[in-house]
Amino acid sequence: MNICEVVGTNVRKLRQEKKLSQDQLAADADIDRSYLSEVESGKKNVGVEVLAKLAVGLDVHVTELLSGYSD
């Protein structure tokens, strides 16, 4: 998996574990819901600021969103 797919998979998994809808997480992270959908599907390359917003919205450390990635 590439880094975008890893981040997307981790975001989706954590969001579902916390029983949040995409709308809820997008609002909490102050990003657009359609953008979040593309992140979760691995189609968007997430910048550092968005990565930090998602971590805050999910109440996790940024490293959890990168977990499982190896070069």
Question: Brief overview, please?
Answer:
Helix content is 66%, strand content 0%. With 71 residues, it is mainly α. 24% of the residues are buried.
Per the CATH scheme, the topology name is 434 Repressor (Amino-terminal Domain)
Biggest sheet overview: none
CATH superfamily: lambda repressor-like DNA-binding domains
Number-wise, the strands total: 0
Number of domains: 1
Measure the end-to-end span: 10 Å
Number of helices: 5
CATH class: Mainly Alpha
How much strand?
A: under 5%
Q: Which structural class matches the secondary elements?
A: mainly alpha
Spans of 5+ residues with little confidence (pLDDT < 50)? none
CATH architecture: Orthogonal Bundle
Q: Could you tell me the mean pLDDT?
A: 96
Proportion in helices: 55-70%
Secondary-structure element order, N to C: HHHHH
Q: How does the overall form come out from the CA principal axes? A: globular
Radius of gyration: 11 Å
Describe, in plain words, how this protein is organized in 3D.
With 71 residues, the protein is mainly alpha-helical. The radius of gyration is 11 Å and the shape is globular. The longest helix is centred in the first third of the chain and has 15 residues. The protein contains 5 helices and no strands. Helix 2 packs across helix 3 and helix 2 packs across helix 4. The protein is 66% helix and 0% strand. The termini are close together. It has a single domain, classed as 434 Repressor (Amino-terminal Domain).
